[in-house]
Specification:
The chain has two domains: 50 residues, Rubrerythrin, domain 2 (Single Sheet); 141 residues, Pnp Oxidase, Chain A (Roll). By secondary structure, it is an alpha+beta fold. The strands form three sheets. It has a seven-stranded antiparallel sheet. The chain has a three-stranded antiparallel sheet with strand order 2-1-3, with no helix packed on it. It has a two-stranded antiparallel ribbon with strand order 9-10. The mean pLDDT is 93. It contains four helices and twelve strands; from the N terminus they run βββαββββαβαββββα. The structure holds flavin mononucleotide. Flavin mononucleotide binds next to β5, β7, α2 and α3.
Length: 200
């Protein structure tokens, strides 16, 4: 039995061949890579059993390309330092959002609530190269021109630090200062990656 990992959302499938599509992010089977036992850990299976237990929030990362607003779903977001407050974000290089962030050096992290499944479907499954993701979606614009969602549970704006765009093979890792933001709804719990998988 082999393990196949979706390079887009990291879902792992066990079987002789990859699944026809990813049950979490709907990517086609071409997006699955075989998990090679090349890791230097002594017990790869045990190691992965541990790393998959890391909990993630689910967010919409928004940015823009000239006047065109765009965004994508990402779980790969974490706080790095508290003073100043910096966050890291990993984005697949082929995503339009990666191009937007490389171009303007900014993005917003939009924290989704447990009732925001529609926003995940809107931003997580098709590229903004094909359509206007923000059309008809309620949003605001920060002082620097970045879009943020008003239907989530909060948002913050990030400015990528000089020299902190790191090439991680398939992904860009952006380390950024938090420069603006607001908490929105306190009565709804934030959406986690695990909650979305269980309820999608
Ligand atoms: C649940 C879920 C989690 C995802 N997590 C990430 C992530 O952490 N990083 C990433 O680059 N893409 C992630 N994606 C995939 C992007 O959201 C997706 O490929 C999107 O269509 C890219 O849009 P764009 O080309 O407009 O940027 C995730 C998708 C889903 C549904």
């Amino acid at each position: 039995m082999s393990k196949w990992r979706c390079v887009v959302c990291n879902y792992v499938f066990e079987g002789e061949a990859p699944p026809d599509g990813c049950p979490v992010c709907d990517q086609p089977k071409e997006k699955f890579v075989k998990e090679e036992a090349k890791d230097r850990a002594k017990d790869v299976a045990a190691m992965k059993k541990a790393t998959r237990k890391v909990e993630y929030g689910l967010h919409v990362i928004a940015s823009k390309d000239g006047d065109k607003l765009n965004g994508q779903v990402a779980n790969a977001v974490m706080q790095v330092t508290t003073n100043p407050t910096t966050f890291a974000l990993a984005v697949l290089k082929e995503n339009y959002t990666a191009d937007c962030i490389l171009d303007c050096g900014r993005f917003t992290v939009n924290l989704l609530g447990q009732d925001n499944h529609k926003l995940v479907r809107r931003f997580g499954y098709r590229s903004g190269r094909e359509f206007e993701k923000f059309k008809g979606i309620e949003h605001g614009i920060t002082d620097t021109g970045m879009p943020y969602l008003t239907g989530g549970v909060g948002w913050f704006e990030c400015e990528v630090k000089d020299g902190y765009t790191i090439d991680c093979d398939s992904h860009w890792l952006f380390v950024a200062d938090v420069v603006d933001g607001d908490g929105l709804r306190d009565d709804v719990k934030p959406m986690t990656y695990a909650y979305f998988r269980a309820t999608k």
